Amino acid sequence: MAKVLLVDDEKDFRDVLAQRMSNQGLDVDTAESGPRAIEMIDSKLYDAVIVDLVMPEMDGLETLKRLLKKQPNLQIIVLTGQASVAKGVEAMKMGAVDFLEKPAKIESLVKKIEQAEEATMTLFEKDLDKKISDITGKKGW
Amino acid sequence: MNDQADNLKDRYPADTELKFSGTILASVTHELNNVISIINQTGGLLEDFIFAAEKGTPIPPEKLKDIANKICVHSERGIEIIKHLNKFAHSSDLIYGPFILNDQIENLCALLRRFVSLKGATLSTILIPDKIEVINFPFKVQQVIFLAFKIILSLTQKDDSIILSLSENESNCKINVKLETKRECILPDYSDIKNYANSISAELISNNDAGSVFIEIVLPTYVSNLPHNVE
């Protein structure tokens, strides 16, 4: 079951989308702001983080930057309300793995989360392989 | 290419009005998109429950109630936004003439609230109960208010308050765009806005007060103290 963190300031949007994602078999947590999301990634490993771009206090791009600073391998999918792809592309240049336009279809969102989960797994395995080869190299095995 | 763009800018001073409309439209459509996204996902959630019910899982009545409530609340929110946007769009129907300033300011404020909340601040209005009628350019008056608001907004931070108030005396009315903050702020240069305000016979006065920063827009009033039921 993929672990997902949904970050959006609109409570009703957050609640409904989280419920729909749970219905699709995902383990979903929610955060109402960027700073809250930054706190939350300390206590749980997420396969994907969904971040809304337009939020008060700290916007989505700033949140993205700070999340990646803490966990560079974090798979972040951005939700954009803009009809043009420009903001989504900007987010990808900053390290987001993908973006979706609001209102997003649940099937598209789930598909992107599954891809993010696979990427997280691959990165984890690579990281583990590297650690093992570092240890075996040091020990001369 | 840049020279050509500069020439075009000189030939079309209405450019700033387009920018004003564009900024308002971008913000409002963004908010409408949020509203529609909620309704869209709530409808999707209802579909999920129906799909489960078809497979034998009954739909809990409280879930249905919650879904119906969300759809109603956000539809009403969307309708309100569209009403304000429509009123704003129609404010350009009359190029020059008499209009009720209170209504215009209230409507503009409803459209500006989102800019303020994105900064984690609040926007409130203090309008005198008497309707103030002015003879001016309704769209341009809104633009001057917006330009003053933009300056104040650029100084706004989390937990600040912007207050937009309207008052009048015998010959003119005053629209005050004020920032209440605990920080020390200095108004930036805004001579270009002053010139624009002059073009509609408005005067801009700025002030830095203890705990607040404000710009006052003084407009000549032709008819004042209209009865409350003027629509």
Q: Roughly how much helix do the residues of chain B carry, as a percent range?
A: 40-55%
Tell me the overall shape of chain B: elongated
Number of strands of chain A: 5
Strand order of the largest sheet of chain A: 2-1-3-4-5
Strand percentage of chain B: 15-25%
Residue stretches of chain B low in confidence (pLDDT < 50, at least 5 long) are none
Summarize this, please?
The complex is a heterodimer of chains A (141) and B (231). With 141 residues, chain A is of the alpha/beta class.
Can you give a write-up of this model?
The complex is a heterodimer of chains A (141) and B (231). With 141 residues, chain A is of the alpha/beta class. Helices cover 52% and strands 17% of the residues of chain A. Chain A has five helices and five strands. Chain A is globular and about 55 Å long. In chain B, a hairpin with a 3-residue loop joins strand 4 and strand 5 (172-180). The model of chain B has no long low-confidence stretch (mean pLDDT 88). Classes of the chains: A alpha/beta (141), B alpha+beta (231).
Structural descriptors:
heterodimer; A: 141 residues; alpha/beta; 5 helices; globular; B: 231 residues; 5-stranded mixed β-sheet; 3-stranded antiparallel β-sheet; 6 helices; 53% helix; elongated
Write the layout of secondary structure elements.
The complex is a heterodimer of chains A (141) and B (231).
Chain A: E1 3-7, H1 11-23, E2 27-31, H2 34-40, E3 48-52, H3 60-70, E4 76-80, H4 86-93, E5 98-101, H5 106-139
Parallel strand pairs in A: 1-2, 1-3, 3-4, 4-5
Helix pairs in contact in A: 2-3
Chain B: H1 2-11, H2 15-54, H3 61-90, E1 97-100, H4 101-117, E2 122-127, E3 131-136, H5 138-155, E4 161-168, E5 172-180, H6 191-198, E6 203-209, E7 212-220, E8 223-226
Parallel strand pairs in B: 2-4
Antiparallel strand pairs in B: 1-3, 3-8, 4-5, 5-7, 6-7
Helix pairs in contact in B: 2-3, 2-4, 3-4, 4-5
